Amino acid sequence: MTAAQYEQFSNYAVASATGILALAFVAYVAQWGFARKIAPDRTLVTSSVDQHDSVLEPVERTSTDAQAERSDVAGGIGFSLTGLAWLVLLAGVITRGLSAQRVPWGNMYEFGCAATLMALTAYIVLVRMWAIDWVGPIITGFGTVVLGLSALVFVPPGPLVPALHSYWLVIHVLGAMIAGSAFLVGAAASVLYLVKARAERTTAEEDRVGFLWRIPPSAKIDQIAYRVHAFAFPIWTFAALIAGPIWAQYAWGRYWGWDPKEVWAFITWVVYAGYLHARATAGWKGKAAAIIALIGFATFVFNFVGINLFVSGMHSYAK
């Protein structure tokens, strides 16, 4: 295939992945909608018969099998479509790189596509590890928006500017994408934590119906958010504060120049460092920690969108 053919295939693949991911979002929303009247099943209760034996009482099901089945089927469809979108987007990112004959994250359009691919990868892996499919609507919705907005800043594949001709491009940006993917999952978990924790405080026991009550309790969600952020933070530290400055020295002859993008990368680091420090030393959990995590993610998004689009600096080539 020629470079032009690779480019055309990549464009079709990214557009297709956007549509498939949007359908996955709709399926996940349907999963929540179908479960709106489903009450959570009661946990199996162990009743002691004597000191050496016990039996499990039958589970009392207060939800209808039909409603639960429709909700589960919609969730399965959502996850399958997410996997399909991942495959199609992977093909689009690879062929974009083949068309440009370089790594496919040299500008904002390419970064949006590659970062969405990385976010879907993180989500699919964590679904298998921790069954976090309950963040599916947020992940797929966010990914659809990012891919759609990336199309607005589309540029044809071409050579990199001189500052980007370094293997540090691969190291620095790949690390940022991995960390950002985990930050997205952590932000999604933090949002659901705030919603679930408030519902646990304000909703009477007999009114606890819907998909919100089929996901883990708020304490478990908070724990998952913390683990994801604890994984992402050292990767972000390396990408933004170690690999980035080394690359800056190679490209511009200085390690740090207070460029707007560098400043906001540092702000993101400070916010997440504060989040993890507060949890580790002061025992912060719950609402305050979740809000700090969401502030951190907001600074991360602004760094990769707002700075590129609205602020001029040494990183303006990334538009």
From TrEMBL:
Lineage: superkingdom: Bacteria
Compartment(s) where it occurs, according to its Swiss-Prot or TrEMBL record: Membrane
Domain Cytochrome c assembly protein residues, every copy: 105-315
Cited NCBIfam families: cytochr_II_ccsB (TIGR03144)
GO cellular component: plasma membrane
GO BP: any one term: cytochrome complex assembly
Major localisation: membrane
Topology of the protein relative to the lipid bilayer: Multi-pass membrane protein
InterPro entries recorded: Cyt_c_assembly, Cyt_c_biogenesis_CcsA, Cyt_c_biogenesis_CcsA/CcmC
GO molecular function, one term: heme binding
Annotated protein name in UniProt: C-type cytochrome biogenesis protein CcsB
Natural source organism: Aeromicrobium ginsengisoli
A UniProt-annotated Pfam family: Cytochrom_C_asm
Keyword Transmembrane helix among record annotations: yes
